Amino acid sequence: MGDRGKPGGAEVLLASQVWPAALVPAGVLGLLVGTSVWLLRGVPLFPVGFLLGVVVLAWFQRGDALLADETGLLLRHRGRVTRPYRWHEIHQAGLARPWFAQAALAIYPHGGPWDVPGPNSAVLVGRIWMLGRPNRETRERVYAILRSRGVAIDEKPVGRFGRLG
């Protein structure tokens, strides 16, 4: 399986966008440094170090993606491709927004009523950087791929930042 492109004929469900991941914190970092030098005649080290760490982390995660092939889901994270779930293990799935500028696939795997994760408790797979909500075409494409693999769709999963639909 390759680092870039479609490993083994997999389709891309969600892919990180570099501009919200690295450029937004970099802009805030530049604004903070410029303002502090102009007003305070110095640079506050903790906020600058924190924002610089966010920029570096986001830069290394810029190629992250959630992929789907005939066997199940594939997760590309920092150049490594792993398989978190196979299609027969997934009961239901839907798109979610776990945090600001992020999107993920909420997976409800098969299992008993008390299993965590299970049919009553989702696990978030493939958190990617995406400013704003996935557009209608992206949602329809993801849901069509999931339906074609026999996965029930949760049209309105709720994340910390509200519903997607």
Layout: helices, strands, pairs:
Elements: E1 11-15, H1 18-40, H2 45-60, E2 65-68, E3 73-77, E4 80-82, E5 90-96, E6 102-109, E7 123-129, H3 136-148, E8 152-153, E9 158-159, E10 162-163
Parallel strand pairs: 5-8
Antiparallel strand pairs: 1-2, 2-3, 3-4, 5-6, 6-7, 9-10
Secondary structure tally, helices: 3
Please give the radius of gyration in angstroms.
Answer: 18 Å
Instruction: Find the structural class using helix and strand composition.
Output: alpha+beta
Instruction: Write down the secondary-structure element order.
Output: EHHEEEEEEHEEE
How do the strands line up in the largest sheet? 1-2-3-4
Q: Portion of residues in helices?
A: 25-40%
Sketch the major β-sheet: 4 strands, antiparallel
Determine the N-to-C terminus distance. 34 Å
Give a description of the structure.
It is a single chain. This protein has 165 residues and is of the alpha+beta class. The protein contains three helices and ten strands, in the order βααββββββαβββ. The protein has helices spanning 18-40, 45-60, 136-148, and strands spanning 11-15, 65-68, 73-77, 80-82, 90-96, 102-109, 123-129, 152-153, 158-159, 162-163. A four-stranded antiparallel β-sheet has the order 1-2-3-4. It has a four-stranded mixed β-sheet with strand order 7-6-5-8. α1 packs antiparallel against α2 (45-60). The longest helix has 23 residues, at 18-40. The two termini are 34 Å apart. Residues 1-5 have low confidence and may be disordered.
